[in-house]
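A favour, since you know our structure tokens better than I do. What I am after is a single protein written out in full by you. Could you add the entry underneath, on a fresh line?


***
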Amino acid sequence: MHKGAGPYFRRYDLPGGTVEANESLAAAVQGEFLEKAGINVQVKENVGVCDFLIPYKLHKKGTSHIHHIAIFYLVQIIGGTPTQTPEKFEGQDSLGALWLPRKEITADNSLPLVLQAFQWLETKKLSFEFQRLDTWVVLK
């Protein structure tokens, strides 16, 4: 997924978002995949959690950093096709979904959690060390 706004603008991300009231984590994962990528998935396994802190001022919260917590799930695609034109609504930050070869994913063009996901795919291990990314630059 390519980001179209916020601190991750113009970087590659995985589908994700806010868990709604009375919604399970698995249902949130399924909903975010459909909403942002056009893909129906079945949640197979909870892989783990990572977190990182990046400098970014949120006007409504008055903070200077965002603490991003990512919960990773192994999913199986059960339908749909990645969409290049996701539904538009207030707060939608996806520019669309696409498949990319691993060699095209770098620390300069992707979120740290994308790199963590590839680490897990390659080693079946996920780093649980907190990452503070004070040199993070929001792309223009």
Q: What stands out?
A: The chain has two helices and three strands.
